[in-house]
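Hi everyone, sorry if this is the wrong subforum. Our group has a chain we'd like a structural model of before ordering constructs, and none of us has done structure prediction before. Sequence below.
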Amino acid sequence: ALPTIVGDLGGVEMMQWISTAYILVSTVVMPVYGKISDLYNRKHVIMVALALYALGKAVCGLAVSMEMLICGRCLSGLGGGGLGILAYAIISDVVPPRKLGAYMGIMGAVFTTSNVLGPVLGGWFVQVTGWRWLFAFNIPLALLAIAAVAFFLTKPVRRDDRPPIDIGGMMAMAVSVSSLVLATAWGGTLFPWISPQIFALFALFFVAAVAFVLVERKAKEPIIPMLLFKNRNFVVCTVTGMFIMLGMMGTISYLPTYFQIVEGLAPEQAGLMTVPMMAGVLITAVGTGFLATKTGRYKWMPIASCAVTAVGFVLLSQLTVGTPLVVTGVFLFVLGFGIGLGQQILVLIVQNEFPHAIVGTATAANNFFRQIGSTLG
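Answer:
Right subforum, don't worry. Here is the predicted structure as tokens:
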């Protein structure tokens, strides 16, 4: 939709900020949502996140300038950064650990379907209703979700204490993540990769990251407790999930443009070409979730996921101008099949490693690094 939006609002030099603004804000607030939901209660926190998300979408839909659109994207990111991790954490609150695998499989299928269906709907809205409906149709869905949470989610337990919020950790993390996102967004586009500006951003990222670790080691209620990294399974699952998301989001972001420029497809057709990948993820995400619940064995799933995903990328690397679209679709199905084998199981493993009191924080930390992978992808 970006070329159409820029053609309407102007400001082509700010086009990349439509994507970068959302990624930047949502990444920064993700661990904050996880920690706050552990300290207070998830029901009210997710309702606030949904409201911010809907408000941001309304601003985007009404935008009369590129600046207003980017502000709306920031506001959406402020809410959207909490939706995924809070949903996962709430499921772990209300479902017994032994049954969690099946629910995580369904959650994974919904998440991936939405991710891949986005290009399809985007192409349709641009061609049929106009780009503003890309944002407007989210608003009633968010309001419906708020109503569902209010009426159906169990009443949260009220905490008498009010632990201090880790302001220092938030600030150091914001500077670190912002520097990394800006360096990867601007490198090779606004500035050459080998330039003082990009080197300075990477240096600032490194310094702020070190400061973040030092602050978190002394904080009473750290945003990302360092004790998480003493758990081997958390580290393995987080790094693996980060690389899978790097590949998945890189593919989803790149291929619709490839199909339009190289294959000459219309936006809606380019979006439809991602459906085989969605089908592969659906099959394995749901299947592995139920298998994990039934057998209690899931170590083989992320291992198989990495192997099949690697095969999918090898196949996609063989694409040429003359490759038939049917063959490309098969390659994408293999990639999706591999991603679905392990993506949600990795979250399940992380949640099973820690006591319930910090499951929101652990889930948020895991998703935070996945988001970093998405950004780099």
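For your construct planning: Residues 232-261 form the longest helix (30 residues). The mean pLDDT is 86.
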